[in-house]
Amino acid sequence: MKRLVILGGGESGVGTAILGKKQGYDVFVSDFGEIKDNYREVLKQYEIKWEDETHTENLILNADVVMKSPGIPEKAPIVKKLLEKGIPVISEIEFTVQFTNAKTIGITGSNGKTTTTMLAYHLLKQGGLNVGLGGNIGKSFAWQVAEENYDCYVLELSSFQLDGIVKYRPDIAIITNISPDHLDRYEYKYENYIASKFRITMNQTENDYLIYDADDEAIEEWFKTNKTKAKLVPFSLTKTFENGAFIKNDTMDIIINNEEFEMKTGEVSLEGKHNMKNAMAATSVAALMKIRKETIRESLSNFQGVEHRLEKVLKIHNVQYINDSKATNVNATFFALDSMTVPTVWIVGGVDKGNDYSEIMSLVREKVKAIICLGVDNKKIIDAFGNVVDMMVEVDNMRDAVVTAMHIAEKGDAVLLSPACASFDLFQNYEDRGNQFKAAVKNL
What we know:
CATH architecture of the largest domain: 3-Layer(aba) Sandwich
Shape: globular
CATH superfamily of the largest domain: Mur-like, catalytic domain
CATH topology of the largest domain: UDP-N-acetylmuramoyl-L-alanine:D-glutamate ligase
Strand content: 15-25%
Number of domains: 3
Radius of gyration: 22 Å
Number of helices: 17
């Protein structure tokens, strides 16, 4: 009986444990932190052995294969010991694909991947396909393969998940864009992070497709010195293609395998230039999966968007409050500020992952009237923007941030939570941060 050890008892860890058990492995789950009650219950129910708040080495180093949750870095002592012993350490995605014949659509990128994933899923589901949604969002991919029977999966994949693949090959891969993020995990080398994203296409064949942003500098650079076997489907706001997706005269035009799909950009429910790109990427998937044009058109016009991503919360005294808590890096905040059309009170801050604020400097000058720093350490933000805006305030909780914003904002302004940072200093995660923002706004 092969021994499967799982590091991390969260969604992907528990899902993998269930699938491993079903496939006849001897399964053990070990979490250095605390396993949440709901996951403990599931492990007990499935009679899976587990431990938390420790890693017992003799129960881990005897594994045949180890599934590491994406949040655990390669340089964690236990991972180093496993690699030294030559024990394969893989991701949930790599472990799971060997047990399913379903098609997969793998979506990665620094920003826009959640919106693109949700939209692609929406298009395929509305088109009548038997489709699952997983990866970085929703129910774990492994858990679904263990218990459901989908014909295809739309998977949001982080660079951490891609670091742990060996043979995984998506039928359709998407790279939405690449900008510096998580550099703390890549020895602060941007090229390492870029290489990590492109692992999504490393096993693809001539029968597979790679959909990508042809306006993206890092992606275009990669193609100058690297190749993929996959058929290329570029999308762009400025260029046109014989095979690809583009915008021309306010029309989104998608030409794939000599089939053409057109739709007026004004009819797409998502707003903003970056969302046009997300829409082009997701629609390219729908076209490749032969969804009816009428269905695509309908689905693009009624898609609701993603929570915590430029989500309009409420208008109070003619001030619009916007929750963009999902903006955990500077590039995401760039899109948010770029889409603002009125003077903005900007709530920013958290755990800085090596941010370079210079790229949003001109947008801040043009659009931001006041900055509210919401973090434990705000020095970098204050140094960057102290001379750029008239007013800067530091707070250490969401209620104070929102109340302060209300006092500063005037009729016709907007209050934007777009932190450009991770949330772990004051919140559990970006959802918790966004939910606290929404609750504080509703209490005004």
